[in-house]
């Protein structure tokens, strides 16, 4: 079964082909292609939804042609078309959904709407060291921070989540306050490497809340307060403040992940979503897990942020596991929230 996956939920157009055998064998990535709109949105300091939609329209078919050519496949070889149904920007999602359904109708192939976060969650299965069920998942993206118990494909129990800003949002908003531009996460993380995290004491919200929820909205206020206090000295102390911000976010993510593992008696952790690319998070999590005999699985670095491979994969795994059937009704729907 060859599944074409299309991702267009935000500022990345991703298209990929995976091949899945019958049974439980992990699908194989045949080809994937990505166009990032970062350069286009940079001037505005964030994603402009209308520009994002228009750019997806321009990119999605050339990227589809590219993956077919890279995989040595023809359009007729596609068995199923999977697309991101949500969450994401409505207009952007409609582009992927529209193209997926048009291809499905033209080729007489079924289509399947995929949850973007399930794509992230399953993306470590495309790494050279794929996890095995069950595991605890830490999902850290620009819009979500969630801890999940995962017993199989589609068997997800939400254990805790952010009650306000997501971890990626905390990175992005703090970076903006420090004048680091968009996207803030990678920029703040790069600057943090030159700073001393102990130079500022920043809050670790909900660390001792006794549950697995997160709260990051207060952190950006604390960063703003420190930045104001520093005044003209901010420029010279920016790297320290960036390092302290990153340390506060990473500290909470690591401790709550360990707590989730212990509460569920699990020894396997999967980290997914854009913030999973953060070097410091990877180092701290790996160290904390090593101490406790827990194995950690990450997606390949280039598959941490949005991409089509994870959507093709999630679609293929849902079909393989029999929990979902692709549909030949091309009345596509999107779920922005
Ligand atoms: O998963 P993703 O690509 O898109 C969403 O589904 O939201 O995640 C994007 C988020 C952004 O907030 C971005 O700043 C953050 O992931 N991010 C990082 C890093 N790379 C991406 N945050 C911290 N350090 C990084 N290296
Ligand atoms: Zn994402």
From TrEMBL:
It is found in: Cytoplasm. Belongs to the KAE1 / TsaD family. It catalyses: L-threonylcarbamoyladenylate + adenosine(37) in tRNA = N(6)-L-threonylcarbamoyladenosine(37) in tRNA + AMP + H(+). It comes from the Bacteria. InterPro entries: ATPase_NBD, Gcp-like_dom, KAE1/TsaD, TsaD. This is tRNA N6-adenosine threonylcarbamoyltransferase. Fe cation binds at residues 116, 120, 306. Pfam families: TsaD (PF00814). Required for the formation of a threonylcarbamoyl group on adenosine at position 37 (t(6)A37) in tRNAs that read codons beginning with adenine. Is involved in the transfer of the threonylcarbamoyl moiety of threonylcarbamoyl-AMP (TC-AMP) to the N6 group of A37, together with TsaE and TsaB. TsaD likely plays a direct catalytic role in this reaction.
């Amino acid at each position: 079964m060859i599944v074409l996956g299309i991702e267009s939920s935000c500022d990345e157009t991703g298209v990929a082909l995976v091949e899945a055998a019958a049974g439980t064998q992990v699908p194989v990535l045949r080809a994937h292609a990505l166009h990032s709109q970062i350069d286009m949105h940079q001037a505005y300091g964030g994603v402009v939804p209308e520009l994002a939609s228009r750019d997806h329209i321009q990119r999605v078919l050339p990227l589809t042609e590219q993956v077919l050519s890279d995989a040595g496949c023809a359009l007729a070889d596609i068995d199923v078309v999977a697309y991101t149904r949500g969450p994401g920007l409505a207009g952007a999602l409609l582009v992927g959904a529209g193209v997926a359904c048009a291809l499905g109708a033209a080729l007489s192939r079924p289509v399947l709407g995929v949850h973007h976060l399930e794509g992230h969650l399953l993306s470590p299965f495309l790494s050279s060291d794929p996890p095995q069920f069950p595991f605890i998942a830490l999902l850290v993206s620009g819009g979500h921070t969630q801890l999940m118990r995962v017993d199989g494909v589609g068997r997800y129990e939400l254990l805790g989540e952010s009650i306000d800003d997501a971890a990626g949002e905390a990175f992005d908003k703090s970076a903006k306050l420090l004048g680091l531009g968009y996207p803030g996460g990678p920029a703040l993380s790069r600057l943090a490497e030159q700073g001393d995290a102990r130079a500022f004491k920043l809050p670790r919200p909900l660390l001792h809340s006794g549950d697995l929820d997160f709260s990051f909205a207060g952190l950006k206020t604390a960063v703003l307060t420190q930045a104001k206090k520093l005044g003209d000295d901010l420029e010279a102390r920016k790297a320290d403040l960036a390092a302290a911000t990153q340390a506060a976010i990473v500290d909470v993510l690591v401790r709550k992940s360990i707590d989730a593992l212990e509460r569920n008696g699990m020894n396997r952790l999967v980290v997914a979503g854009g913030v999973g690319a953060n070097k410091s998070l990877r180092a701290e999590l790996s160290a904390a897990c090593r101490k406790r005999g827990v194995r950690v699985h990450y997606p390949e670095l280039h598959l941490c942020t949005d991409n089509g491979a994870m959507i093709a994969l999630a679609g293929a795994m849902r079909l393989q596991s029999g929990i979902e059937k692709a549909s030949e009704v091309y009345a596509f729907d999107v779920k922005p929230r």
